Amino acid sequence: MKSFETQASDNELLSEAERREATRAALDAVSPQAAPDAFIAARAQAARRSLAMLTSVDWIFERQGWRPAWLLLAIGTGLLVGITADVFGGITQLNLLAPHVWLVIVWNVAVYFALCMRLFKGEPGRASSSSGWIANAARGITNFWYRRLHQHASSSTPQALALADFSREWIRTSLPLATTRLVTLLHTASAAVAVGLIATMYLRFFNMGYGPELSNNFTGTEFGHKFLSFFLSPAQWISGIAPPELIQMQATEGTSNEQKLNTVLPWFHLYAIMLLITVVLPRTLLACWSGWQAHRVCGHFPLSLDEQYYRNILRARSNEPIRIHILPYAQTLAGDAQQNLRRILELAYDSSPQIELAGTTPLGGEDDLNGLLADLAHANHLVALFDMTATPEAEYHGAFLSALAAVEVPVIIVVNESGFASRFRDYPQRLAERREAWTAFCSTVHKNPLFFDLVSPHWNNCVTALRSSIDESVAA
Asked: Is the pLDDT reported for residue 74 higher than 70?
């Protein structure tokens, strides 16, 4: 809803009446003691109903990128990979080294080591939610998922801007959630791969009933037997199953299928237990942990309540009015320009702020503001309005800003360039040079000026720039 409310220049998607109705509905639905995000969510639900006529984008609110079926898909993919793996070699030779099994085990142990190192360094479980290959993959998947937003946008410019802004903001805001869900799927698929490997070991040698010859190039030697027994010792210790003796392994040549199967069966059990303790159980626990984290993030979705949009909504909840003082310096604002500036401020605050236009301070009159400063202390924002026809000077304009800074209220600098732009319409470089001069001057007071043509403003650009300046001034 933020995108639909902030990207329209003149309440083209949601009227003032619809916004006030959404606020009233949220006030009725949520108790005064409820958390701020609960009120914001209730208001968004109420405002959403006012967008029902936008049938081309209504599917966005119903569409869910995550479904439990994704877990089933991850399990099925992992089982398929595990079952189709050639664990012990071909059907005529049995390689007890089982390279596919050890590859899976070593890879998973390496993953656990990396997770432990991150934990040892003090990084939280979701520290990599905005960086790393998993986060990049999650970002790419989410970006692909919402690519249709632009295709479903109608020819209405406000609607297209809202959809584009929603896509960008959702991808950025939901990245920790998407990354955590992707991690859950990876853990689940890894556990399923190991289960598939276990299943294929027993399926091949119990259900198919053939008796392959042992490949004794390595495991048939004393060193090979000790090597394999050593690395499978954790499974031996847990299960109490002992591997067959070397002499038993060597005696299988020329014996019946049943004798061969009984001889090598303990190796199957040890490999299965090894996969259980090194892959299936740890990965299942990690998948449950990541799933719980995703559920928690989904239930407590992070909102930056310091943004001006949310501050306006919460201020409306408390019935606290927004007071803005416009302070022209050395140039009186014409009637049309004055109304346009008021309208830009109203759109930027998404509400009906109380806007007061002070008398124009004459050049050099910044020392006579003492009577006005007491009234300014009750404002939420001050708008220092300069005219571009004047060259910025620290002695005058800088002193005026210094006097306003003493009030300790956020100050926004607006430079009206309508007169200057009209005078030098055929010399655009003059406009660029004067903008650079004002930007350099404002940087000395750690401010970024806003350049508005208040006679014929570009509404979307002005409102967007003003909102950014409001957030910067509050953060400062």
From this structure: yes
Stretch among 61-75, 182-196, 285-299 having the lowest mean pLDDT: 61-75
- 132-159 mean pLDDT: 63
**Are the beta carbons of 364 and 331 closer than 8 angstroms?**
no
pLDDT greater than 60 at residue 231:
yes
Instruction: Confirm if 297 and 177 have CB atoms less than 8 A apart.
Output: yes
Residues 6+ apart with CB under 8 A from 96: 88, 214, 215, 219, 228, 264, 267
Question: Of the CATH numbers 3.40.50.300, 1.10.10.60, 3.40.50.1980, 3.30.470.20, which one belongs to the domain with range 321-475?
Answer: 3.40.50.300
Domain-by-domain residue ranges, the chain?
69-299, 321-475
CA–CA dist 319, 310 (Å, integer): 14
Instruction: Express each pLDDT in 306-326 by its tens digit.
Output: 776 777 777 777 767 788 999
**Residues constituting the chain:** 476
What's phi and psi for 83, nearest 5 deg?
-70, -35
Q: Phi and psi for 415 in degrees, rounded to 5?
A: -110, 115
Are 384 and 410 within 8 A, CB to CB?
A: no
Q: Give burial (CB, 10 Å; 0-12/13-18/19+) of 247.
A: exposed
In 3D space, the residue among 363, 328, 324 whose CA is nearest the CA of residue 347 turns out to be: 324
Q: What is the pLDDT of residue 449?
A: 95
Question: In Å, how far from its chain's centre is CA 232?
Answer: 43
Question: Is the pTM here over 0.85, yes or no?
Answer: no
Handedness of CA 220, 226, 232, 238 (dihedral sign): positive
Burial of residue 220 (CB within 10 Å: 0-12, 13-18, 19+) is: middle
Q: Kindly state the tokens that stand for 231.
A: 């690395």
Backbone angles phi, psi at 329, to 5 degrees: -125, 120
Task: Name every residue whose Cβ is closer than 8 Å to that of residue 427 and which is 6 or more positions away in sequence.
Answer: none
